[in-house]
Description:
alpha/beta, 4-stranded parallel β-sheet, 11 helices, EC 2.8.2.-, transferase, sulfotransferase activity, P-loop_NTPase, Sulfotransferase_dom
Amino acid sequence: MAAPPVGRYKIGPITEKDTLIEFAITPRNTVKSLQVGDAIQHLAPGSEDSSFLPDIREILPLIQDMPVYDDDVFIIAHAKTGTHWTWEIVNMLMKGSTDYEKMSKARRQLEFHYPDEFQNMPRPRVFNSHLLLHHIPKQAIEKKCKVIMVQRNPKDTVVSLFYHMKASGSFDAETTFSEFLSSWLKLETDTNHNWFYYTKKLQKMLYDQTDLPIHNVYYEDMKSNPVDEVKKIVEYLDIKRADDFIHQVVDKCCFDNLKKADSTKVAALEGVPKQAFSFMYRKGEVGDWKNHFTVAENEEFDRIYNERMKDIKFTYKYTLKTVD
C-alpha cells in the first residue's frame, strides 16, 4: 500500500457539510474520497497533515477564479489517455523550440497547485488537467483560450490505469487486472474519475460549447499518423511552424524519447521523490488490452459500453493496422 504522502499541503477537517465517499478501486480496496460537485479527490493516509495535493474544497473555486492570458492553452484529458505526450508537444509548438520542458507535467496541472503558484510561470503557458471544462478558469472560456481534449480507447485506458495505480501503491500487489476491471466497470459515481461520465461530459464540451472551439485529439491517431495530427494542432493553435520543425517535434516526442527525457525533469511534485513517479511511462501501445482481457471480459466490457454509451458520438480505434 502507498506510504503516507510527504507533500507541503494539508487537507482541512472533514465536516458534515462535506461529501465523503468510499471509492472502490478493487473489490478489496477502497479509498475515502472528497467529492465537490463532479470533481473528486482521494484522501491518502496522513493527508490531514501532509498531502502532495491541495484540498479540493479550496482549490476548485480558486481555479475557476484564476486570471488567465489570451495565449494560455488548456489540455483536458482523463488519466492515462496521453496527457503527458500532448502537453509536451503543445509546449514545443507554442514556444517554437524542441527543448523539453524542465518542469514535469504535474507542475503545470491545475488541480495540483494553488493558482498563485503559476504567477511566475513563463509565457506562453500550457496547462493540463484531469478536470472538466466547467472546472477550469472562467476567464479561459470568456477569452476563448485554446482548449485541447485528448482521448484514448477505453480498453487500453483501463489497462494503463491498472498498472499506474498498482505501481503507485493504490492497492495490494496481489490484485489482478480482472479484479480491477470489475470495479472499474461498476463505478457509477458522477465524477471526473469515472471514465464513462467523464467521456459523456467531453462530448457535451465538444458539441455544445459552440462559442468555444475545442480541438479533439485521439491517442490512436497520434500513434498512427503523428505528423498530420501535429499539423492539425498547429492549425488549431493558429501558429505557423515549418514542416521540418514539426517532424523534429514528432521525433522528440516519440514514446522512447519522452521516457528518457522525463528522467531529467524537476521532480513531479514538491516533496515527492522523483522515483515515485517513475511509473508514468510503461508501453504506450495501441491494442495492449488484448494481452489482458479474457474473451468473456471483452464481451462484458462491450455490453456495458454499448449500454452506457449508446448516445456517444466518439469513435475509438482498438487496434492499428499493420503495414506488411
